[in-house]
UniProtKB/TrEMBL annotation:
The lineage of its organism: Bacteria, Bacillati, Actinomycetota, Actinomycetes, Kitasatosporales. PROSITE patterns: HTH_ARSR_2. InterPro entries: ArsR-like_HTH, HTH_ArsR_DNA-bd_dom, HTH_MetalResp_TranReg, WH-like_DNA-bd_sf, WH_DNA-bd_sf. It holds the Pfam family HTH_20. One of its GO terms (molecular function) is DNA binding. Residues 17-111 form the HTH arsR-type domain. Keywords: DNA-binding, Transcription, Transcription regulation. It comes from the Bacteria. This is Transcriptional regulator. Gene3D superfamilies: Winged helix-like DNA-binding domain superfamily/Winged helix DNA-binding domain.
């Protein structure tokens, strides 16, 4: 089995992500445990459409921001696609709902 980091970008610009059946609860919870990553997920959920990474204002450097998006993508929480020079991110809401019913709404509802 290939790990997410061993895969390459697809022709349509999608960055590597785990298949739904390979998303692990521990990885998702670990990714969502960080306040910055949780903020990203909440912003993406509120937007309801893909957002460029720069559209989510974060109090961290660009390299740290990139790290947080990568953790979320490799955990299977978000999908990222290159569109021109931007990376558009979207929440894998339906896929996470099939894999772990009720998890994402519970996390998003938390204060």
């Amino acid at each position: 089995m290939l790990g997410v980091t061993e895969l390459t970008e697809t022709e349509d610009g999608l960055l590597p992500e785990p298949a739904v059946s390979e998303i692990e609860l521990v990885a998702v919870l670990s990714a969502l445990a960080d306040p910055i990553r949780l903020r990203i997920v909440r912003e993406l959920a509120a937007a309801g459409e893909p957002l460029a990474c720069a559209a989510v204002p974060l109090p961290v450097s660009k390299s740290t921001c990139t790290h947080h998006y990568r953790v979320l993508r490799e955990a299977g929480v978000i999908r990222q696609q290159r569109v021109g020079t931007a990376r558009m991110s979207s929440l894998r809401e339906a896929e996470l709902g099939r894999r772990f019913p009720g998890l994402l709404p519970s996390v998003l509802a938390g204060g």
